TrEMBL record:
Belongs to the AIR synthase family. The gene is purM. Coiled coil: none annotated. This is Phosphoribosylformylglycinamidine cyclo-ligase. Residues 65-170 form the PurM-like N-terminal domain. GO terms for molecular function: ATP binding; phosphoribosylamine-glycine ligase activity; phosphoribosylformylglycinamidine cyclo-ligase activity. It is found in: Cytoplasm. It comes from Leucobacter triazinivorans. It catalyses: 2-formamido-N(1)-(5-O-phospho-beta-D-ribosyl)acetamidine + ATP = 5-amino-1-(5-phospho-beta-D-ribosyl)imidazole + ADP + phosphate + H(+). One of its GO terms (biological process) is 'de novo' IMP biosynthetic process. The lineage of its organism: Bacteria, Bacillati, Actinomycetota, Actinomycetes, Micrococcales. GO terms for cellular component: cytosol. HAMAP family: AIRS (MF_00741). Pathway: Purine metabolism; IMP biosynthesis via de novo pathway; 5-amino-1-(5-phospho-D-ribosyl)imidazole from N(2)-formyl-N(1)-(5-phospho-D-ribosyl)glycinamide: step 2/2. Keywords: ATP-binding, Cytoplasm, Ligase, Nucleotide-binding, Purine biosynthesis. Residues 183-346 form the PurM-like C-terminal domain.
C-alpha cells in the first residue's frame, strides 16, 4: 500500500498573495531572451542583485559623457491587458527609453526594467520581458537586470505596469544639442509606426464614449481596435547611430527630437535654441489611418490633436542644409521613411501661435502650418 507524501503548507507569504515560485518560473522562461542581449561586457548573467557592465570600453573615449533616461508606456498597458496580448509592450518600453538617449547622439549601453503586477503569471511576464529583450537586442542595448514585483490588493490579478531605465555614452565633442543648430538648417521628419506610447488616455476615452471594445473589429484599420492600437513603437536608435557614425556624414546632424508626450511642436521646440523658429508644413505628410479614424470617432480635427499624438512623426533631425539630401537618403536606406518638413530660421519675428520650449526648457519656437496631405 503506497502512501501519499504530505504536501507542505503554503508559506505565510503565499497566503498573502505573493507567489515566489511563479516569479522563479517567470525568470526561467525569460532567461534565454535576456541572455541574447549580453555581450562580453555583461558580467554575472541573469539573477544577480545588481547588473554588472564592464566599462573599460569607455577608456577609449577622450571625454565620455554618460546619458540616462527612464520612462514607462503609460496607459497603453491597459489595452494589452484587455486583449491579453503582452508580447509587444516590451518594445514600447525600450523605444521610449533608448530613443530618448540617442537624441543627444549617445549609444545605449545597458538597461534595467521593472514590472509591478497584481499576480505573477509566468508566461505573461515572460512575454513582456521577451519583448523588452528583443528590442534591446535590436538597439544594441544589454538588458542587465530587472525586477518583477507582485502587489496583491494594490493591483488586480491581471493588472501590471512597466518601467525601465537605460544608460548610454557619447563623446563630448559629438554630443548633439541646440548649440549646433544654425540658420537655414533643414528639419527632417521620420515616420512613426502608429500612436507609439503617448496619448492613450485620450484614445481610451474616445472608444469608451462610443461604446467600442478593444476586441471589436475596425474595417477602417483592418484589425481589431486592440490589435491596431498595440502596434509597437518604432525603434530609431540603431539606424540613427549608423548614420551618425558614417564618416561621410560626420557633423551633418545637429540635433534630434523624439516625438513623445507633449506632441509635435513642443518636442521639436525644446531642442532648438532661443530665437530659432520653424514652421512645419502639414502638407508634407499624411497622418496614418489610425489617427484619422480616432479623430473622426471623437469628433476632433487632426489639428486639435497635435499636442497629444504624433500624427505620424516619431523623430525629427535638424541637419545642415547642404547635406540634408544625403542625410535623408541615408535614413531612408536604413528603413526610416524620411522627408523635409521645414527650415530653421533665426530672423527676428513675433511668436504668436508658436509653441515655445517645453518640459521646463526655454527653447525655440515651432508651429504647424497649412493643411495635411490627403
Amino acid at each position: 500500500m503506497s502512501e501519499t507524501a504530505p504536501q507542505s503548507a503554503p508559506s505565510a507569504y503565499a497566503q498573502s498573495g505573493v507567489d515566489t515560485a511563479a516569479g522563479d518560473l517567470a525568470v526561467e522562461l525569460m532567461k534565454s531572451a535576456v541572455s541574447r542581449t549580453h555581450g562580453p561586457e555583461v558580467l554575472g548573467g541573469v539573477g544577480g542583485f545588481a547588473g554588472m557592465f564592464d566599462a573599460s570600453a569607455l577608456l577609449g573615449y577622450r571625454r565620455p559623457l554618460l546619458a540616462s533616461s527612464t520612462d514607462g508606456v503609460g496607459t497603453k498597458v491597459a489595452i494589452a491587458q484587455a486583449i491579453d496580448k503582452h508580447d509587444t509592450i516590451g518594445q514600447d518600453l525600450v523605444a521610449m527609453v533608448v530613443d530618448d538617449i540617442v537624441v543627444v547622439g549617445a549609444k545605449p549601453l545597458f538597461m534595467t526594467d521593472y514590472i509591478a503586477c497584481g499576480k505573477v503569471v509566468p508566461q505573461r511576464i515572460a512575454d513582456i520581458v521577451r519583448g523588452i529583450a528583443e528590442a534591446c537586442e535590436a538597439t544594441g542595448t544589454a538588458l542587465v537586470g530587472g525586477e518583477t514585483a507582485e502587489h496583491p490588493g494594490l493591483l488586480g490579478v491581471d493588472e501590471y505596469d512597466v518601467a525601465g531605465a537605460a544608460t548610454g555614452v557619447v563623446e563630448a565633442d559629438k554630443m548633439l544639442g541646440p548649440t549646433r543648430v544654425e540658420d537655414g538648417d533643414v528639419v527632417l521628419a521620420m515616420a512613426a509606426s502608429g500612436l507609439h506610447s503617448n496619448g492613450f488616455s485620450l484614445v481610451r476615452h474616445i472608444l469608451s464614449e462610443r461604446g467600442i471594445g478593444y476586441g471589436d473589429r475596425s474595417e477602417e484599420l483592418g484589425a481589431s481596435y486592440g490589435e491596431a492600437l498595440l502596434t509597437p513603437t518604432a525603434l530609431y536608435t540603431a539606424p540613427l547611430l549608423r548614420v551618425l557614425e558614417d564618416p561621410a556624414l560626420d557633423g551633418a546632424i545637429h540635433v534630434l527630437s523624439h516625438v513623445t508626450g507633449g506632441g509635435i511642436a513642443a518636442n521639436l521646440a525644446r531642442v532648438l535654441p532661443q530665437g530659432a523658429w520653424v514652421e512645419l508644413d502639414r502638407g508634407t505628410w499624411s497622418p496614418l489611418p489610425v489617427f484619422r479614424h480616432l479623430a473622426e470617432l471623437g469628433g476632433h480635427t487632426l489639428e486639435s490633436l497635435e499636442g497629444a499624438w504624433n500624427l505620424g512623426i516619431g523623430m525629427f533631425a535638424v541637419v545642415a542644409a547642404d547635406r540634408a539630401p544625403q542625410v535623408a537618403a541615408a535614413l531612408t536606406a536604413e528603413g526610416l521613411d524620411t522627408w523635409v518638413a521645414g527650415t530653421i530660421s533665426t530672423a527676428a519675428r513675433e511668436f504668436d501661435g508658436f509653441e515655445q520650449g517645453a518640459k521646463g526648457v526655454d527653447g525655440g519656437a515651432v508651429r504647424l502650418v497649412g493643411a495635411y496631405a490627403g
